[in-house]
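Module 6 notes. Inverse folding takes a fixed backbone as the condition and produces residue identities as the prediction. Think of it as a translation problem where the source language is geometry and the target language is the twenty amino acids. Below is one complete input and output pair. Work through it position by position during the lab.
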């Protein structure tokens, strides 16, 4: 006997979840459905599995991080594509650094060694279902009122000139609209169309 997915949050319950600021109830319902019936289907069908990470905590969880909304969206996007594609086809470029404490307890920002200024947050190399080549998708996550830097605008123009797709994602609703606009892809016998 397979496990039943938990009931999704009501609109009122969702309003208490921090990610609701970048996710409508409809977009959340679609994520909930995908999380339990696609991403974790094998686990749901296995009665020996005691616990599946709930959809509400299955993505970026550090709600105190100043980039929480962007990181939550990136996490959903990365996990969605990583489910269907080879993991090396879903790339999150090094474009940031980290804050470290010095011996004098002062915080300083150290840029990542392999930083690629202006690169999109998630880059996907997607083989088309027809088998006729692939398309490269660059997704820049800009939650709330974040704006693109000059380097990001230059990168956007550059990759579009090469025939690649470059899109801004501000909400999970934006992401689902984009997914629905792209042709189906197949990998490991899977296709999306949730």
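Target side of the pair, the amino acids:
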């Amino acid at each position: 006997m397979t496990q039943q997915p938990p009931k999704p949050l009501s609109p009122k319950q969702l309003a208490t979840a921090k990610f609701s600021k970048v996710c409508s109830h409809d977009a959340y319902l679609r994520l909930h459905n995908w999380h339990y019936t696609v991403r974790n289907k094998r686990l749901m069908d296995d009665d020996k599995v005691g616990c599946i990470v709930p959809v509400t905590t299955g993505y970026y969880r550090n709600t105190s991080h100043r980039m929480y909304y962007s990181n939550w969206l990136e996490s959903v996007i990365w996990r969605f594509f990583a489910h269907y594609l080879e993991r090396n086809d879903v790339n999150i470029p090094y474009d940031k650094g980290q804050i470290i404490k010095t011996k004098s307890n002062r915080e300083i920002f150290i840029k990542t060694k392999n930083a690629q200024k202006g690169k999109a947050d998630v880059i996907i190399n997607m083989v088309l279902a027809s088998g006729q080549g692939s398309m490269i998708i660059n997704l820049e996550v800009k939650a709330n009122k974040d704006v693109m830097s000059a380097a990001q605008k230059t990168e956007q123009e550059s990759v579009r000139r090469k025939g690649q797709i470059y899109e801004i994602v501000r909400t999970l609703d934006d992401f689902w609209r984009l997914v629905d606009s792209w042709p189906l892809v197949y990998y490991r016998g899977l296709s999306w169309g949730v």
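Reference fact for the lab report: The chain has a mean pLDDT of 82.
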